[in-house]
């Protein structure tokens, strides 16, 4: 068939274990960790998937593969035309997104922080449309914090090469990434497991503080390096890293998203993002309250 690009809409599920390593260097791969459930919000992947298809179709001699290839072939012109219509608007909206600091800047200005308000959920979701990070098995997203997937979690060679001392598994449990503390006994790694499900209805917020404290403790250990993972390193684990940056590094949610996304492509599901938004509102109110008390 001469396929050059593969878009897998069941990436990382029980039915699909493929990835870039499986296809090799000759095929450009993009995986969407979607579940075929009525409650799953697949809309968060519409724009990046459309971008991937559009880019593929504009590559000379390209042939795109998908589970329903004939549907993609018939609708390829539709995707291309629609993307060309909506992209300028999306780009314009993204440029208008509120932000308090550049992703490369360690601190926000006092002026921007004072005027910061938590954006609506729809605006926050747009932050993930433009993929500027990587899709590696593991990426360093903050000094001594590594974010990645199940493959990296099971690769002791990789963990040793990175000198990982702590692991936070956001997909712990017998039906998920069931490594556990015993798996890492020979590496002398401190382990913390969170039994979370990548479902918008799952309340991940109950783990925000404990997970953030674990990461903070790891970073304050001499030579401490923490690896945070779930199945794909995109939703559950990414959400916990964002929560850490908000709680312990005093970042706004927008800042945290930009910081992590600059190094790794992430996409928390709509439920997790909504929970992070609630946390952002709470922390922002606390910051403003502290500032008002200090000025009295």
UniProtKB/TrEMBL annotation:
Q: Which UniProt keywords apply?
A: Cytoplasm, Hydrolase, Protein phosphatase
Listed GO MF terms: MAP kinase phosphatase activity; protein serine/threonine phosphatase activity; protein tyrosine/serine/threonine phosphatase activity
Q: Where in the cell is it found?
A: Cytoplasm
| Residue positions of the active site | 230
Q: Which Gene3D superfamilies match?
A: Protein tyrosine phosphatase superfamily
Outline the segment boundaries, as ranges, of region: Disordered.
Answer: 95-118
Name the chemical reaction catalysed here: O-phospho-L-seryl-[protein] + H2O = L-seryl-[protein] + phosphate; O-phospho-L-threonyl-[protein] + H2O = L-threonyl-[protein] + phosphate
Q: Where is the composition biased (Low complexity)?
A: 103-115
GO CC, any one term: cytoplasm
Q: Which residues form the Tyrosine-protein phosphatase domain?
A: 136-285
Output the SUPFAM superfamilies linked to this UniProt entry. Answer: (Phosphotyrosine protein) phosphatases II (SSF52799)
Question: Record keywords: Cytoplasm included?
Answer: yes
Q: Which family does it belong to?
A: Belongs to the protein-tyrosine phosphatase family. Non-receptor class dual specificity subfamily.
* Protein name as catalogued: DS13B phosphatase
- Species annotation: Zapornia atra
